Amino acid sequence: MERLQKVISNSGYCSRRKAEELIKNGKVIVNDIVVTEMGYKVNGNDKILVEGKMISYDEKEYYLLYKPRGIITSTKDEKNRKTVVDLIKTNKRIYPIGRLDYDTSGILLLTNDGELTNLLIHPRNKVDKVYIAKIKGILTKEENLKLTNGVIIDGVKTSKAKVKLKKIDKKNLTSIVEITIHEGKNHQVKKMFETLNHEVIKLKREKFDFLDLTGLKPGEYRKLNIKEVKKLYSNVNKVSSS
User: Fold this and answer.
1) Which of 17, 112, 168, 217 has the maximum number of C-beta atoms within 10 A of its C-beta?
2) In whole angstroms, what is the distance from residue 107 CA to residue 206 CA?
3) Which of 101, 103, 128, 169 is catalytic?
């Protein structure tokens, strides 16, 4: 059993706040009865109409995938290339939370929980994402500081980041850098290094919030357990309410 407003939000119809407003205004019907009670709970057998439209109540699934390079972060691809959804065996209509570039590997979450997706990708909730980047050139202390304080990409300054130089290769003139960001701008990490004239040769996302890739090889995945899902909700709710 779940609260009605959460079920409406999870269906993708609207946000939870909007769902509460619709319930309050008598726009939601459950089993042919108008419901205005905010704590009302429903299950998978209930017939729910929102503003005259039927919504689906689907059991939620949560997956952690070690995305390999060369896979599209999408539910389908017009060029019929393999997508991250193709790697997971489920009959549910899941989708990725955020995205990783075609040539980027690492941790990716997939679900059919619309509410959690919106919480995790919203910039105000500051979900940490840790990347390991192999770049051309040797990253200097001055450049490290610039990345930490934010650089201008696409006309907008990035938020502060955590940057750690892990290794340098003076012979081949490359650096291995760990960078932690909480934004999700398109190609953000690559563009951040490009502002300093460092091309990203290889990029991997190692962590998403508290989750990592322990025990997984590229292309492998596992289901998140209920404790992990609750912790994700708890972490973003703490930030959004502070």
Assistant:
1) 112
2) 6
3) 101
